[in-house]
## 1
Amino acid sequence: MESIKWTVATGLALVLSTGYTLSAFAQAKPETLVEQRQSAMTLQGKYLYSILPMATGKIPYDANIVARNVGYLAVLTQMPWDGFDPRTQGVKPTRALPEIYKDPATFKAKQDALHAEIAKLQSAVKSGNEANIKAAINDTNKACNSCHDTFRAKQQG
Amino acid sequence: MESIKWTVATGLALVLSTGYTLSAFAQAKPETLVEQRQSAMTLQGKYLYSILPMATGKIPYDANIVARNVGYLAVLTQMPWDGFDPRTQGVKPTRALPEIYKDPATFKAKQDALHAEIAKLQSAVKSGNEANIKAAINDTNKACNSCHDTFRAKQQG
């Protein structure tokens, strides 16, 4: 208790003595969080949907583009999750369903499943086996869809 | 000329024989390019502006967050540029100025300058020298602003 008091007092003193505003410590606005998470989703789409047709044989396979995009996706798939803050509910129409906040354990499990598929995809790219890479691209897409099926509205609100 | 004809004919044959639609080969729509490049800018903002106050001393320095964000920024700063396609001019109001397409060499030089600052920032993070890291974060921000000053409208259109 003593240490908590000390921390709060010190924090306040720090804020007051250096002219810090409280907003410097405050969380991002809900609107900003929505824009940021949607941006991460948009870029995941950019780099997944340009290699998915390679995995399904719809366009010619390009190993360089696949390797680049998989590297990008490994980073981008870290980014959306902190944007799903309960404070973002209702701030503007999005396809994010309330189930995200009612069942955070399942939402987290879907994220973990995506990360596992991305790790598999990165291993496949490292090995250079085209069949394995294509299978892992398809499995990554399935992990995206599995979460969307549960936690994203079918039509744009 | 012969080889060009062959390529076009082969491409068409490929398209027709396998049921591919031409859209599979087509470029992204201008609206999509704008959305994707704006998404990359939004995420660059997310991960730069959360560590910039650490560099300027406005909030406490957190080495783990800095290292993570710099890794993200190294990837994100690769992403916006292919979205600045001349076809995107006028498709919707954005702050991108026509100078981008009138003076592509300078636009490219500004990108290269940013990439050089990011490389310097990554080196600083690897070395772990906090003063160097803070200086490099500030220089990265200056590289962003230098491009914005020339190629981005002052107010949202």
## 2
Amino acid sequence: MARPGRRPGPTETREAILSAARELFGARGYDGATIRAIAGQAGVDPALVHHFYGSKENVFVAAMRVPFNPADVLPDVLDGPREEIAERLLRFFLGVWNDPDSRAAFLGLIRSGMTNEAAAAMVRQFLRQALVARATGVLGISPLRAEAAMSHLIGMMMMRYVLRLEPLASADEDELVSIVAPSIQRYFDGDQGP
Amino acid sequence: MARPGRRPGPTETREAILSAARELFGARGYDGATIRAIAGQAGVDPALVHHFYGSKENVFVAAMRVPFNPADVLPDVLDGPREEIAERLLRFFLGVWNDPDSRAAFLGLIRSGMTNEAAAAMVRQFLRQALVARATGVLGISPLRAEAAMSHLIGMMMMRYVLRLEPLASADEDELVSIVAPSIQRYFDGDQGP
């Protein structure tokens, strides 16, 4: 593969790792694709994958072009006043979707998850480990409540940015937050039953 | 097209109309495809389209295999105690999605809307006229609140039936309703600001 007379540089090695990762995540799902297997497929030492990416989650985020790493973002969202978590979450997602590059990456991920079972399995497992497990751990809410909140967030982004239903698509961010945040916040308030 | 020696029967005529409708809805969007144009494309008299289907909305529902006609269903959901609208809506949608045929039809519609701009325009215009306009008219809420409610409903169905995120995918219907309905109901309560 490499050009003769030259060892592959870090950029080519990273590309080989990400390409192997996309293949294995697609074939085995997020849970089934190990760093060891990805390294084997890319023809590199697993230690190098760890060195470049640190965790399987980071490999996934890079390989799938997820526009942000939940591990970096969630602490900021989950910290701060608990009664404003939904507002911080909404504003963060609106920011991500307003950026054309991030939006394209997100759309690719959602479209794949909607139309292809292997991609759906990948996205499903990643959402559970990267978002749901963290949110339930920190907030002490049930996974069902965390997923209900996520379903509203994702549905909102789809209707605003993909279907572009008016007036939702053009609604001012502050107005949108004032209308929607309380319905999401309900799921993060601990005193409402199951 | 018709076999020689035989005039096309009602079944063939309906198929010709639906096929013309799919083509025109796809090419011109829901608003742009008129009954007259659909009839012309199918080579029949517009009065025959009216006779078979009664309205453009009914043509769309049949052509796109929408699993229910909002005009038939919404009155039942919107009637009855206002404080239980969200619960009736949720139970209705869960019923539709639990049926494999309806689910397949819905999935086709959503997948097209997510991946193809012509389909997105069609679905968008149909949702606005068939659902949003009716809900705002009857309930006196803003279109933005109606669409926020719809975004939660659609996001929920996608996560439960398409991505199949657990525990949401296997959650008992009553439990789901008790957790989610209040967040949707908020949008239908008139006393909460914008």
